[in-house]
Amino acid sequence: MRSRQTLYTNNQEIARLTAEARAWPFNEARRIIKRHNNKCPARGYVLFQTGYGPSGLPHIGTFAEVARTTFVRNALEQMTGWPTRLFCISDDMDALRSVPDNIPDPESLVPHLGKPLTQIPDPFGTSGSFGEHNNARLRKFLDGFGFDYEFVSATRRYKDGHFDDALLNVLANYDKIMEVILPTLGEERRRTYSPILPVSPTTGRVLQTPILKIDAARGTVQFNDEDGDLAEIHVGGGNCKLQWKPDWGMRWNAFGVDYEMSGKDLIPSAELAAKICRILGTEPPVIFHYEFFLDEHGRKISKSRGNGLSVEEWLTYAPPQSLEWFMYAKPRVARRLYFDVIPKNTDEWIDAVQKWQQTPDEKRVETPLWHLLRYGGDGGSQNPAATAAVGVPFGLLLSLAAATGAPSEQILGSLVRRRGSGRELSETDVALIGYALAYHRDFIVPRQNPRVVGDGERSAFLDLAETLAGLSADADASEIQNQVYEVGKRHDFPSLREWFRACYEVLFGQETGPRLGSFFHLYGLDDSVALIRAALDRK
Fold first, then answer.
1. What is the DSSP pairing of strand 84-90 with strand 220-224?
2. Helix spans in 173-236 (H)
3. Which run of H or of E encompasses 412?
4. pLDDT tens sequence across 191-211
């Protein structure tokens, strides 16, 4: 259980700052506060939940759910001081329905199809079962981002009897539950459907089989086992599990979940689970439905299609904070998630860090950085992450890499030190240089194609070279930028936008680029003039 780590000396100051905050995590927190009539629950904490299917590895959707839930959790703690818990639940009692193709010796799992994931040998040889292996990967994944959570294995909760009372409640309300589920199914499925999935006492497989008889008083169900023989089992102790939609509602009931997120594609399922939860006697949690991520073509990202961007891929080219920044913005809006969004989001994060110390508390609370820092209460004024030295925007580093032709850590490092008047590089600088070099190698170089200066542009680029050569050596970025504007105005371009686009295409081989005043200032006026003259000589 976690309670707010107060860094303000006055708790009233926290309440004042957050009371009127309109950032979406605070609005979500208000829904939870309303659910409990402005009082901390009698059990002493608010419970958040996220779920994970361990038949595969954790992915960017897993990260998004835990990160966004954490934003809301922190907002609630800041507003109320109520203790909170976050359960990250692995549905590891689910049956393996198909063998993944990205595991060692996939044929070895074929005899185990239909068994719970925690009863299948681990093909990687690192854990007691395939489910446990994937659970370990999930925990390592979440721990790597510093998330505060409690891992929950569905298998363990079924087998240790934690769900027994809820399962007996399901039996007692079996007919009512069937009444809400059956209308949502097709005719053929309705004939064989049961919310209860018995585990075969002979084969250990999770059976999709009709339930022939229910004895609510004894807590048992009868069904035909795989060999055709009539079998009877008690529903508790891990002898059965529920279909996933009833399981969702049962879990809300058993744990008393207060808040959960899910994708908009699960709205009908969440509504069904909420009805089941009420039938079992519990008010369902506050639900937040988020939008899908899209690829560069506007198609929904799909694991099976392989058109997504993984967490590992993002972290190859940018720091974790930039990914959290992306996840924070507009969760109810479908957003494109592909490699081209990385520089923009990284620079937005860097800009926020640089402005943090000059931002009043009243405005800090409305910014993503307030939630990304996950600090406890003082607006981050003493948090190292908020004051980390960041010398150069990421997009500018990419342009410097493009301009140098053969960039290296030494070359980019010297340019960053030049901007910082010789100061030593911070850890953030060093990390960003490494990310920029990786991004440049994999995405800029393959697409980089500096074009030849057109006949109608030659006089403008000659003018630009002469203008920069005539500036004082101590001219700042703003003065240089103004001169670039003036050069564009003196020549026959349809708009200044077209002038800057020509500069980017000629100098960097790209349609977009950094603020040119900042680039020329950092790159050095003499080197910038040489870069322009080399472009003018390009055939």
1. unpaired
2. 174-181, 187-192
3. helix 409-419
4. 889 999 999 999 999 999 999
